[in-house]
Amino acid sequence: MKDFLSMQALLQTLKPGSPEWVLARSLDPERLPAHIGVIMDGNGRWANSRRLPRAAGHKAGVEPVRMTVETCARMNVQSLTLYAFSVENWKRPRTEVETLWRLLCYYLKKEVAHLMQNNIRLRAIGRLDELSSEIRKELDSAATTTAGNSGLILNLAINYGGRSEIVDAVNQIVDEARRAGRLDQLKIDEDAISRNLYTAGQPEPDLLIRTSGEMRISNFLLWQIAYAELYVTETYWPDFNRTALLEALAAYQKRDRRFGGIRPAPARVCADDPALEAVSSPTR
Questions:
Q1: pTM of the entire structure?
Q2: Do residues 78 and 274 make contact, with C-beta atoms less than 8 angstroms apart?
Q3: DSSP 132-156
């Protein structure tokens, strides 16, 4: 019932008969992903294709963020993780990196009110201690303000790397064992690592969306996406609208998710089965 009402909340914002409305109506509200990860790629190429500076592409990418966040919240998705800035992004030109940080501060200041209206909790994941004090202050403020919300968890992956996350998780386990005086007895298993990831306590992603057509994971949620369904679209991130998001969800619901197993084959009846002969033979 809750899932049905959430889909109704989305449908009420859409124009009846529109492509978005038709797509939303086609979705099974009980089979939506619990957690969606998004690699927001293509801002620079979007700008280059229009002979604009790369900064223009990053600015144009803010609206799809708002749309994706609000749409997922209305559909009762539990978690949404957006790849905002990777540990490798520091290699980009300084002016571009500074633009990204300015946009992040702008987003945080402007969008907190919308997050509150939509009952969304914001969390930042990554090596946040390497960020400037200004950025950390804005992130902490937004996280504190939205901490009491009970709806969608919005993870902003900032200065994030999947390998770094796993390393940090293992180091956290080792540090805890050392402090407890049981380092010589330490055994690290999958559950221990999962409990110490940045996304601990949240469901693992069911769906990973990547825009711009690149067929790479790019060091994103490496541990968590072990069985996620991958959806790649040629659409650049600034052009990723609600229709594109709903198309990704429709494609996801057509997947046969087996998690490494197989579906049991339908029972087959042997041709020489006496029971079959009794049924198929004419009455004498």
A1: 0.89
A2: no
A3: -HHHHHHHHHHHHHHTT--S-EEEE
CA 233, CA 56: separation in Å to the nearest integer?
21
| pLDDT tens series, the chain, 284 aa | 555 566 888 999 999 999 999 999 999 999 999 999 999 999 999 999 999 999 999 999 999 999 999 999 999 999 999 999 999 999 999 999 999 999 999 889 899 999 999 999 999 999 999 999 999 999 999 999 999 999 999 999 999 999 999 999 999 999 999 999 999 999 999 999 999 999 999 999 999 999 999 999 999 999 999 999 999 999 999 999 999 999 999 999 999 877 666 666 666 655 555 544 444 444 43
For 100-118, give the DSSP string.
HHHHHHHHHHHHHHHHHHT
What's the rounded Cα separation, in Å, for the pair 190 and 211?
30
Tokens standing for 273?
């089965």
- Residues with active-site annotation: 41, 89
